[in-house]
Amino acid sequence: MVRATVIRSATYRRMPWKNGGGETVEIAVSPEGAALSEFNWRVSMATVATDGPFSIFTGIDRTLSILEGNGMSLTIDGKAPVLLTGTSDPLAFAADVVVSATLPDGPITDLNVMTRRQSLRHTVERLVVGPSATVRLSTPTFLLLCRGAPLAVEWNDQRADLKADDTLLLEGAEGTDIRLVGKATCFLISIGSI
Can you name the CATH fold of 12-118? Predict the structure, then answer.
């Protein structure tokens, strides 16, 4: 049985960054209400307005995607900088190495997905839908963030209507086919056990 929860953007939780350098908007976290040191997985958005270091999360893997703005350059663990833009593939990297960001062309808003490395794995995919698309879910936990426009999500005999910036959380969803109807940019987040 697939359990579905529509998370309205008005209910997202605003909180300070772990390092105090800005504000994050928490979309969903497991277990529900978990502190930053205790979550198994976490999905959030943040506006980055100034250059600076990322918070360190021990034992965590993260994936970043650009939602708004003209891009962010990341220096990860001393390697050559990587430019992440709104058209780049989501970028996966360890959250417990030194990462610094520079903004070559103004502030950005990013999507941040984090999972605890010892027990979980995740993937993030950006999908532009129009007028429809079908996706087969490959993990028990799946989140879909809808950006820019409303979207209907249909599966089995169920349907959820998302407004722009809402998120759909499906649990027990592995092997389910979902149909997306509308014209929107979606971020598909799959979370499963190691």
Answer: Jelly Rolls (2.60.120)
